[in-house]
User: Fold these one by one.
Assistant:
Number 1:
Amino acid sequence: MRIGIARLWHEANAFSPAITRMAQFKAREWVRGEDAVPLFDGTATEIGGALAWQRSRPDVELVFSRCASAAPAGPVDQALLDAFTAEVAGDRALDGIDGLYLSLHGASIGTADLAPEESLLKALRRRFPDLPISASFDMHACLTPDIAAHLDAATVYRTYPHVDMAQAANDALDMLARIVAEGLRTQVVVRAIDRILPSFNMRTDGSGPMGEVEDIAVGAQTAMGDGRILAAYPFASFAYADVPAANSGVVVTCEDEAAGNRLADTVAAALFERRRAFIPDLASAEAVLASRPWANGRRVAILEPSDNPMSGGLGDTPGLFAAAMATDLPEGSVFAFFCDPGLAAKAHAAGEGASLEISLGGRLDRRFGEPVSCGATVLRLTDGHFRNAGPMEQGMRVNLGRTALLQAGRLRTIVTEGCQSPNDRNYFALHGIDIEAVPLLLAKAKNHFMAAFGGLFDEVRQCDTPGPAMADVSRLPFRHIPAERFDIS
């Protein structure tokens, strides 16, 4: 059995002022053919999962087309997307394959095309009208009946933080192999609930509404699993993509359409019933800092999700940093991070120990606040390369570009050329920071932070500041999502 593999993994924030271009893909992932194997082998990613799956299936050969991903950011340059689609859809390496597995995020957008994954699937179907195709998606995919119509099977991450990427690939490949080997005729059903559910309260690693819905989905599909393929996956969509397809719901793979619709209805109802539990209640950065949660020696992390790069933030908003600079912080506090290639270059030119006058935040977009000017000392310089310790994307190589650790007031502040979330222990180890000795960490991050650090701090709080992924979506200029989808009261 020859299984083709291709990948387009990017989450786009429509409110980011920066276009995602080839440089961002090459910094993270832009490979094809056998070059994919050393990049992903042994990693907790979809393609890493596919390679592990193949080892247990000596009857299967994997054939790699283009695999591409970039860190979440603004819309992708349309010419790049068009070239990617043409390359994969016309790839002669895929001649004679028995099935095709796609690793898709589901919330990419282009500078012109608001549904590039759908465009990719349509192009592939024109070439392979009868080929079994399965795909895996991020929990925050924007899935539609048009996407489902071009697939024979689909999976979605069940965990948030997303520590089951490899499992999502494994399950998608299991279904694909069954469809190929047994000649099954399956379909994918999507049921939307016409609501956008905020992701701030969406973690599945404890009690919470999404974990409850995942349990219901697994239980319901098990109860109906009488030998037919029935797999139900709730998804939460991604509001900040600002596309008509943004809508939470459930996706079901089935042989029997009636059974699939019943399962979809069950899970969609459970998701809708819990909609109010997703409403976040976040205090401002000033209010959180004024409460001094680090008092009495408690170790605390305060997150700024409005500029979280995993939600398309650019490491550029000054809200939390400005509030912190006006607060009496404990000695040894850390701020992670600002993305500022010019400042990183300036620090490298000055060298370790140099004193600088700097400006932080508001470099790309002053809608979310004015830059903060201050003096700083260069503590440490790095080339920005490390491997993730995990558990999320364990083993993946990371390239932050050149970085600098600066002392600004009481804050040790990380500045990077590239924009990636500080969600891994080795991010801090790279900068000589013993994360277990940090009394207060301020980080541009959200729920993924908890995978590596959830048990490390006495308390983790999120605050709301102005930014491209802020909790108060009424302050963002949406154009494509009906206002009623945001009403979850």
Number 2:
Amino acid sequence: MTRPITAGVDGSQESLAGLAWAAREAVRRGLALRVVHAWRFQPHDAIDAGDPDTQAQWAREGLAEATRSVTERHPGLEVATDVLDGGPAETLTAAAAESEMLVLGSRGRPAVVGFLLGSVGQQVIAGAASTVVLVRSGDQPSAEAAGREIVVGQHGDEEDSAALLRFAFETAAARGATVRAVRAWTLPPLFAYSPGSLKLLDEAGGLEPYEKKALGDALRPWRERFPDVHVVEHVEMGSAGQVLLSVSGRAQLMVVGRRARRTAVGARIGSVAHGVLHHADCPVAVVPHN
């Protein structure tokens, strides 16, 4: 069964920007759109907040109003709406597990372009089983114009980045966009040079040629699967977060990864994804990988 693209909305302008982005992506990919609102009864002694049934009705009406603009703009799009009983973080995380991707809105900083991640957003990104896309408040369809790229951070070997590259190539194919695959590298500490690694570096002709070969090897199966997608290979010395942000201005979407496994302190977003989420000036997709 084909899974939908899910958008989480709460009536805010940033969540409506995320909903609009999700609708456009669903149309491109030929997928259904699911729009969800997490709701839990909130009694309040000081004001007339209504009983549970009344609050639930308000939630349904707000969701219908938010979805109306999407159905009017995309009349052929299959749209389902759900008011889900529960806290936002756990409810959206569960919805992500049933979706091709989960799209959320995030407030842009007033002075610095980027995202403001609240606790709910951080929990969902860290715990979701599928890709989570953060869309900045004020995002416009014009940002997806031809010439702007899908930028994806590649690291490790072919298996390490397979999930990220799959998402990037699928997105680029749906949009007719170029993929810019970015691999950042730094000089390793001296103790990291083992006889085996020195042999590989020597065969490759040095550190930078080794990194270029690693990127090319990781991209090969995706180039073969998506022959019509133009690819730019970008290898640069520096920290992964800094290199990715240096090319974010040409991106219509940034794709970064996070480790899916949980640590002793729980699930984490990771430093690269965290930095890109806070400073990129375009939507960011965070893809879980092993």
Number 3:
Amino acid sequence: MDDSPSAQVEALAPLLAAFDAAADAGHITRAAQRLGVPQSSLSRRLKAVEKTVGVQLFQPVGRGIALTPAGRELFGRTRDLVRALDDAVSVVRSNADPDSGLVRFGFPLTLGPVSIPALLADFHAAAPRIRLHLVQAHGEALADMVRDGRLDLAVMIPPPADLPSIVLGRQAIHLYAAPAHPLAARDAVDLTELAGESFIANPPSYHLRRLLDSWCAEAGYVPEVVFEITEFDTLRALVAHGLGIALLPEPETPHPQLRRIPLRTGRSREIGLATGNHRPTPAVSRLHEFIATRV
């Protein structure tokens, strides 16, 4: 039996990185920038992929591109192959020089202005030849990227149960209100006192929103959420303008227009450092150990 690859596979293999980048980015210019090639060169490679496969894989959508049904089928079957090859090359290169390499590191939207940059500055001083690709996103997005190999490590609040993780600490949650709000002068409040208040919160897919809903349910009511927003700085600004109250972690940079009111039954959530179910490179292991011993 002949186990050698077909002519189509031999022709397609060198072009898979171009196909993968364009399929993931949904935009020719951004995909070309990611690969560091001219846009015209990427376009030629994508045409070559379609010619080799024999079907149309992309279609224009506004200023970007979208996969056709055939393109989605091919992307679904090849994306793990491209990630695995990328990981294999990274491992081989890192093993040859453990003081260099690339680490894809993610962290949540409620951390970053102070703690993460300071931590990474210390790491860079200790390992200046290790490159860091940083991603900031909400918990579920980070978890998905660690699961499918797009991230090597991620600080998550809380870490998902299906990924290997270590506990770094806990993040306290408090009530925040504008200075003129009737609750702003209180030393502490109980969750039962917040029934009927207008809340500003994240969308339901965010962990902090799920905590709000469950804690209010324990207190016997459904919170009235008048604004839903993903961006935490804007959320705090809406609270500062008196448009509602919010349950949030303490901001890493001071926000003088907000009043923090502790909850009588202290509430917090776990901070963890999660890794994927794949073999880490020496560079990844070095950052993991650095964070675990410093935080």
